[in-house]
């Protein structure tokens, strides 16, 4: 059974997918040459867009099953919110680290990507272990 908080978060995540959809429109403008970008920016924009979509959908999947995990307190919070946090930070790192005219390398905001990676990894490990423990306890 999903908690009220999980249901609300799933609703927010679904609405966030609309922003990914509009980002897809932006990418069609980039690849058609209507938005001047260099190859670094184009690659990072594509990566940011893809990560946003995949991580939002993964967040919803985790929230749908996390109630079966043997987790509580901080660990349940981490397993439930770590991937949505990564869904914000990782794309932000991709997009914001290549702003400006013709950047030759990512700027310091690339750190957002790595903080997102840490949140994603911690959440996946916690959710995975919690769900395995919950499954074993239910046997």
TrEMBL record:
Residue stretches spanning the membrane: 6-27, 48-68, 74-98, 110-138
UniProt key word Transmembrane: yes
Keyword tags: Membrane, Transmembrane, Transmembrane helix
Keyword Membrane set for record: yes
Protein name: Uncharacterized protein
Organism the protein comes from: Agromyces albus
């Amino acid at each position: 059974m999903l908690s009220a908080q999980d249901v609300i978060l799933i609703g927010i995540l679904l609405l966030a997918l609309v922003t990914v959809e509009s980002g897809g429109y932006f990418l069609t403008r980039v690849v058609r040459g209507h938005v001047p970008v260099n190859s670094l920016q184009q690659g990072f924009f594509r990566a940011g867009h893809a990560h946003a979509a995949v991580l939002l959908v993964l967040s919803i999947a985790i929230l749908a099953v996390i109630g079966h995990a043997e987790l509580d307190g901080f660990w349940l919070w981490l397993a439930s919110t770590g991937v949505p946090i990564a869904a914000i930070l990782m794309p932000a790192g991709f997009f914001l680290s290549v702003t400006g005219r013709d950047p030759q390398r990512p700027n310091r905001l690339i750190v957002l990507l790595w903080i997102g990676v840490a949140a994603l990894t911690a959440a996946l490990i916690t959710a995975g272990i919690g769900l395995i423990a919950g499954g074993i306890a239910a046997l």
